[in-house]
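Q: Could you fold this chain for me?
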Amino acid sequence: MAKKRAFGEGTIYENKKRNRWEGQFTYNDPATGKTKRKLITGKTQKEVSLKGKKFLQDLENGLLPDAAKMTLNQWLECWLTEYIKPNVRIKTYEKYEDCLYGYIKPALGHLYITKIKAPDIQRVLNDMSATGGRNEEGLSSSTVRATRRYLSMAFNKAMQVGILLRNVVKATDPPRLVKEEIRPLTEEQASELLQTAKEGEYFYQGVKQRRKPCPSSEYHKAMAYAAVFLALNTGMRLGEVFGLKWSDIEFEKNSIYVQRALVSSRTKGMMFEAPKTKGSKRRIPVTKKVIQVLETYQRGQQWMENMLGNKFENKENLVFTNIWGKQVDTSNFTTRYFKKMLVQAGIERSFCFHDLRHTHATLLLAQGVNIKVISERLGHSTVTMTLDTYSHLMPDMQETAVKVLEGMFCIG
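A: Sure. Below is the predicted structure, expressed as C-alpha cells.
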C-alpha cells in the first residue's frame, strides 16, 4: 500500500514481487527545467525515505541528478579531454595522463565518484610512495604530490559542475616533499665530457672493429659536440637546444635568442612548443668560443647540404639536424650519443642532459656571478626559484658573509 508524503517528499510503497521498498521522488531537472521523477529503492521504508531526502537535498545544494551514476574513470576522461587538454601544453597534458591513468584509474577508476572517500585515496597515495614504481620501488615524493594535486583539481571541477558536493582529496595528506639531489659536473668533469664529445671515440662503442670515418658519422659527431658545448655554456634545456634556428643566433653580437623548444609527444611526435614561461623566452649572451663552435658546425652542415642537394631539406632552418636536414629526435639523441659520451668520459649514465643546465648554473655560482644574471640565463620565472634550486650547493656562502661582517662595525 502506497504511503503518500508531502509534496516533494515522494511516494513510498512496498513492492512485494521484488521484495523491496520503492519511492518515487519528484524534482526539477536543472539541465532542462522539466519536472521528473526519481526511483529510489531500499530494503525498508525508512531507508528509501532517507535516500530520497538526501537525493532532494543534494539537488538543492547543486548536485546533478545523475551524479551518483558517474564513475571516476568517466569523470577523469571528461575532465582531461574537455578542461585540461585545450588549455595546457601537450607535454603537461601527458604528465596529467601519466599520473591519473597510471596510478589512480587502476585503483579507484571503477568506483562511483560520489562514493570515493578520503581514506580510499590516502591508501593509493601511500602505496605509490611505498611500492608504486618499477621493481616495486617507491615513487618520488614529487610524483605522488603531483598525482594528488591533479586529482584534487579534477574533484574541484566536479564540484563546480555539480557532480560532487565536496573535495575529499583535500582531506588526504601528501608525502613530505623530498627534493631530488642535483648532480652537476665539476669543471674538470665538464671539460672531460667536452673533450670526449669532440674526439668522438664514443661513437664507436659496441662496434668490434672501428669503422672508417664517413661524412654522415663525422657530421653527427660534430652535431652532438656542438649541442653539448652549447648546453654547458648557456644552460639551455634539451628542447631549447634542438629547437634553435640559425635566425635565433646573432653572430656579430655574440647572442642567442631562445624562442621555442622542440619536444617529443606520444600523440604528435616531434613538435615545437613555446617556451615554458615568459622568462624562458630570452636572450643569452655567449662567449666568442661558442660562436666559433657554431660557425664551424654550420660550415659542416652547409657542406652536407651541398653534397646531398635537394635530399637535404632543412625547411625550419634548424641549427641541429640529422644528415638529411630533419629534426633530431631528442630521445634518440640522448640514447645514441649523450649516454655513450658519459660512459667514455667516466661519468655515471644516470647523469642526464638536463644536468648540463645545473652544471652551467653551479659553475657560475662558484665564480661569484650574480644570482639574478644566472636566473635570467636559465629563463627562470623568478630569482627565488634559482636560489631555492642552487643555493644549497654553495656551502661557503655563509662563511663568506661572516668574513665580510668581520670587517664592519668596528668600534674602539
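A (continued): Residues 288-308 form the longest helix (21 residues).
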